[in-house]
């Protein structure tokens, strides 16, 4: 006699937020890539824009970026090298930690990020009516699962 286990899938706000955030990120990078291409002739993929968004101002290490993005250090290194070849990043060996690479924005990369921020600010118009709610939601999400 076979016994079937039945499980009910309960609704999860955390799962809903996960999917909403991922979907928003995917749509955002796709729209940004299209806008940069159409308005400025800059051909970057959504994945490249997502990578650039994961970088902090100043110096980054491949390991830190890989950890933030949830990818391998090798994948990070490949993406950083490709963006360096386009002139947006500089990738250099870390003189202290020989097995690390330091990743920084070039002047062109800094200008590109300023252009991206300006485009995002234009799109903020749609969100301004709910700005307080969205800021509070972002705070709650950040605090709900500590590092």
Can you give keywords for this protein?
globular, mainly alpha, 147 residues, 3-stranded antiparallel beta sheet
What's the arrangement of secondary structure elements?
Layout: H1 13-40, H2 46-54, E1 60-61, H3 62-69, H4 73-85, E2 89-93, E3 101-105, H5 107-123, H6 131-144
Antiparallel strand pairs: 1-3, 2-3
Helix pairs in contact: 1-2, 3-4
Compact description:
Helix content is 61%, strand content 8%. It is mainly α and 147 residues long.
Can you walk through the features of this model?
The chain is mainly alpha-helical. It is built from 6 helices and 3 strands. Strands 1-3-2 form a 3-stranded antiparallel beta sheet. It is globular. The chain starts with 12 loop residues before the first helix and ends with a helix.
